[in-house]
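Hey, I'm writing a tutorial for new members on how sequence and structure tokens pair up, and I'd like a real worked example in the thread rather than a made-up one. If someone can provide the structure for the chain below, I'll link this post from the tutorial.
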Amino acid sequence: DWHQHFRDGDRLKALAPLIAKQFHRCIVMPNLKPPVVTTEDAARYKQEIIDALPEDKKTVMKPLMTLYLTDNTTPEEIEKAKESGIVFACKLYPAGATTNSDSGVTDMEKIKPTLAAMAEHGILLLVHSEVTD
């Protein structure tokens, strides 16, 4: 499993060079505060990651961006994510299951149209499998 939690701020600056020593690409986890919920958020976060890399890794390391699924993620956002060419997956965190998962999905029924859009556009579903009750 080559997903990475780059985090942000000083942690990002410390971790990005270490991660880039081991990987040329990785799935970037979106559970920041606030989470990466839009394509614009993902583009901004990708640039922050690249900016934190050593010069010799900036063109080598490929962060594969993900969106953080919420009850409010729309099929239109999924289409925009696919068109961006930088978002490869969405991460489903059950609300309250893990670090920074407060904004996670509370009811699978609420995201059925979004899941259908993901299937239609070839956006992968990554699931944080943890029981919250």
